[in-house]
Design goal:
Number of helices: 20
Distance between the termini: 45 Å
Shape: globular
Structural class: alpha/beta
Number of strands: 30
Strand content: 15-25%
Helix content: 10-25%
Low-confidence stretches: 2-26, 688-694
């Protein structure tokens, strides 16, 4: 998320036979989206998952449950949309904490708040009359317990893939499970087993590799690290949590790298590539599987019974339960977030319905009573959920590790993360032996990312998008700069931090840290792999001109086209998204006082590095495979190699990506920024996608429109402006072609003053149009560029300016230039 059953004919030791329920058929998928179970490899959940004692307990419990209680087990609500008191009326079976949810609505709440929240929900569920089935509490702990302040943040999976170390992955799973368990949750939505095949995908960093061999090697160890080995004699050991293999299936194979898109390919490709590590995760006993948002040949997986039932419950032998992704069921034809019998009948056992849980519960209950969802299908789903709950230990009264917060970010876990950082680094270039750096010398550290733990951690860190984090939000963490400074000082040298790379005294060497800023899911989708920011390259070239040997440390969630930056560097290190333990980078880059290495590079590319910026899929074994750096590449001090000057022809027009799209799919597209300006001219950034912007006469918060957090709510308390700002662009062709400035908007609070829309230096009055719009309803507004009075179209820095003279609340999304101008009129100037 933001993550034909094999006949159940188990004769219990107590002599009770459990009949196999008939599975309702969902509408047949087209032939090219219909799986043939006989083609698939075999796997099997361990026998300990369905041991006789567990099945007898579940059977007895189900015999006491009402239909209302059974339906409740199939619904999961987000803590941001449900209170413990709601459980007294609605017998829901699960809660989750989405990426922006936290105790009391505080996404950066303290750890004890998480413990208290979990206990409050469990206490409320225990007060319900009837069967009183405990909740199971799920959370996205995808690179450590990343929702919680003070937790250990491990490198994202793309970095872990470069380590090629399954044993390390198992230990990371065990450490993550313990940190989750101490805060009161029972279940993580991982391991992520996606096999990303197009690096433009905004979730590429969640995959270990473009080649499924790595997922196959990691899935078992990570599952066992999280859960331990299933036992017929009792639940998971204290400190272990349930896992969820995701996202079933081919989420990394969508056309164009489009998140929640469609995989168009053969069934054999699904098996050979995208089945990845699911066999190994199931064999290891993973208790749940999350179905993907995406589809196969036009059919969404959440409604494809041939995959969810015929394959997953057939040859793959999975006996746990299937949970849907965040309101993914609502994307099926004929369905909505509030009602979707088709997904349930296809094989979804638990709906992830974060904010739609209440009507979904009522509608699902009605569908069971009407027979649209057969009672046998409901019982099948509930049995699977209860079975997993028994194994996860939610029926256990004692929770010996809960509240033991000394385990959160413990020294042992941070040491493990630091090891993971060291092993994930991939050395792409090292000319003239600039690395390792002599610790006893003068080291300049440049780049705004050097002292920014939030940028090093990336998305899915304290918030869904990972934006708005400061170093203070990572107590116990260490930035890359801090790690380098510590290592250099210990060796008797001196390190200096200069974000822009300027210096008063010439250093012996410079380290420039730069890369992608945080993003998650579809907000990270790209059209090309061109690394657009210009400042890092300018810093590198200035240092090179000054004769300073330079090392680049590149932070990214995917390989990107950075040939100019590589050419301008003496050494270049792909550091991925390393997390909170920046000292792991210093361990490898900084040698002893004389320059002898303390640690060597061992990482190897698990994704092929592109030769150009087009983003065309580039994967080992495909026809025409010709990367800049091949899968498996990685230099070391022991294995040096020369890297020739690389071509700086990107293959794309660099300006094409951002000249016409400003806020699209929830992302402020580079090189643009959202700026908030008060009447006095004071400005501040408003690009954060979570939390309030700094206070002033206008503030911004994310808001849902076409997708989760795809818009921005602008709250004016007095005269102010919200504007899209960036480097000057030449839009004369667009003005001449009479394109429209298009945006979606919603009036959330009636304006008390005038509203205007600006394009460059020109503006038009929108007061009448916007105040007449129905409150609370999204609308589309288009203004022809020719409507603006003589814009300086050859150098537009502000292609969108929304100004208010008084109080108003307006939400906006999808701000872009649009060739479709109808209907578009000219409002009063």
């Amino acid at each position: 998320m933001r993550g034909s059953v094999s006949t159940l004919a188990l004769v219990l030791s107590v002599g009770l036979a459990v009949a196999a329920p008939a599975v309702a058929q969902s509408p047949a998928a087209p032939e090219d989206a219909r799986a043939t179970a006989a083609l698939w490899p075999t796997a099997a959940s361990p026998a300990a998952m369905t041991d006789p004692a567990t099945e007898a307990f579940v059977t007895g419990l189900m015999s006491r449950m009402t239909v209302e209680e059974k339906v409740g087990q199939t619904i999961q609500a987000d803590i941001g949309s449900i209170s413990p008191e709601d459980l007294l009326q609605y017998p829901l079976g699960s809660i989750l904490a989405g990426g922006n949810s936290g105790p009391g609505g505080e996404e950066r709440g303290d750890p004890q708040g998480w413990v208290d929240l979990a206990r409050a929900f469990r206490a409320a569920a225990a007060q319900r009359p009837g069967a009183r089935v405990p909740l199971i509490f799920g959370i996205d702990a995808v690179h450590g317990h990343n929702n919680v302040v003070g937790a250990t943040i491990f490198p994202h999976n793309i970095g872990l893939g470069a380590t090629r170390n399954p044993e390390l992955i198992g230990r990371i799973g065990e450490a993550t499970a313990l940190e989750v368990a101490v805060t009161g949750a029972d279940w993580t939505f991982g391991p992520t087993l996606a096999v990303p095949r197009d690096d433009r995908w905004g979730r590429a960093y969640e995959g270990y590799s473009e080649d499924p061999e790595v997922q196959r090697a990691y899935a078992g160890p990570l599952t066992l690290g999280l859960q331990g080995t299933l036992s017929p004699d009792g639940p998971l050991e204290p400190g272990r949590i349930a896992g969820s293999a995701k996202h079933f299936l081919a989420d990394g194979g969508t056309d164009g790298g489009r998140d929640q898109g469609d995989f168009t390919g053969t069934e054999q490709e699904l098996i050979d590539i995208h089945l990845g590590g699911y066999v190994q995760a199931i064999d290891a006993g993973v208790l749940s599987v999350m179905a993907s948002f995406s589809g196969w040949n036009g059919v969404k997986h959440s409604g494809n019974a041939t995959l969810l039932t015929d394959v997953l419950r057939g040859p793959l032998g999975f006996d746990g339960f299937v949970v849907s992704d965040w309101n993914a069921h609502g994307q099926l034809p004929g369905c909505s977030n509030e009602s979707c019998a088709a997904a349930f009948n296809a094989g979804i056992d638990m709906f992830m319905a974060p904010d739609s849980w209440r009507p979904l519960y009522e509608n699902t209950l009605a569908q069971v009573r009407s027979g649209e969802i057969p009672m046998a299908r409901l019982d099948e789903a509930v049995r699977r959920i209860l079975r997993a709950k028994v194994k996860a230990g939610v029926f256990r009264e004692d929770r010996p590790v809960e509240g033991q917060l000394q385990h959160l970010g413990s020294p042992a876990h941070r040491a493990l993360a630091r090891q993971a950082v060291r092993e994930s680094l991939v050395l792409l270039k090292n000319e003239g032996g600039v690395l390792p750096i002599a610790g006893g010398g003068k080291v300049l550290v440049a780049g705004t990312a050097a002292d920014d733990i939030g940028q090093a951690a990336g998305g899915w860190t304290l918030s869904w998008q990972g934006t708005g984090n400061t170093n203070d939000h990572f107590p116990g963490g260490q930035s890359i700069w801090a790690g380098i400074d510590e290592a250099v000082t210990a060796a008797g040298g001196a390190a200096t931090l200069s974000a822009d790379g300027t210096f008063a005294e010439r250093p012996d060497v410079a380290i420039v840290v730069f890369g992608e800023t945080p993003y998650a899911e579809f907000l990270g989708d790209l059209r090309t792999l061109d690394f657009a920011p210009e400042e890092p390259l300018a810093i590198l070239r200035r240092l090179k001109a000054a004769g300073v040997p330079t090392v680049s440390v590149f932070l990214s969630g995917r390989p990107m086209w950075v040939n100019p930056e590589i050419n301008a560097s003496d050494a270049f290190v792909a550091a991925w998204l390393p997390g909170t333990e920046g000292g792991g980078i210093a361990d490898v880059l900084i040698g002893d006082a004389a320059g002898a290495p303390r640690q060597d590079f061992s990482g190897a590319l698990s994704f092929s590095w592109p030769r150009d910026a087009t983003g065309k899929p580039l994967n080992r074994g495909e026809p025409g495979y010709d990367p800049q750096f091949a899968y498996g590449y990685g230099l070391s001090y022991a294995r040096p190699a020369d890297v020739p000057t690389l071509s700086e022809d990107s293959g794309v027009v660099s300006a094409a990506g951002g000249a016409d799209q400003y806020l699209v799919n929830g992302r402020i597209n580079p090189p643009w920024s959202l700026i908030l300006e008060d009447a006095g001219g004071q400005t501040r950034l408003g690009d954060e996608t979570s939390g309030d912007s700094p206070r002033g006469a206008v503030s911004v918060r994310p808001v849902d429109d076409l997708a989760q957090e795809s818009g921005r709510r602008l709250t004016f308390t007095g005269p102010a402006k919200a504007l899209i700002w960036g480097p000057p662009v030449d839009l004369r062709r667009e003005v001449n072609g009479d394109l429209a400035l298009s945006f979606r908007y919603r009036i959330d609070a009636a304006p008390a003053g005038d509203l205007s829309l600006g394009f460059g230096a020109a503006a038009v009055d929108l007061t009448d149009e916007l105040t007449a719009a129905p409150a609370g309803e999204w609308q589309v507004y288009k203004v022809r560029l020719s409507c603006f009075a003589e814009p300086r179209a050859e150098a537009i820095e502000t292609p969108f300016v929304l100004a208010s003279t008084g109080a108003a609340t307006v939400s906006v999304s999808e701000i872009q230039l649009n060739p479709d101008v109808g209907p578009a009129a000219c409002p009063a100037a």
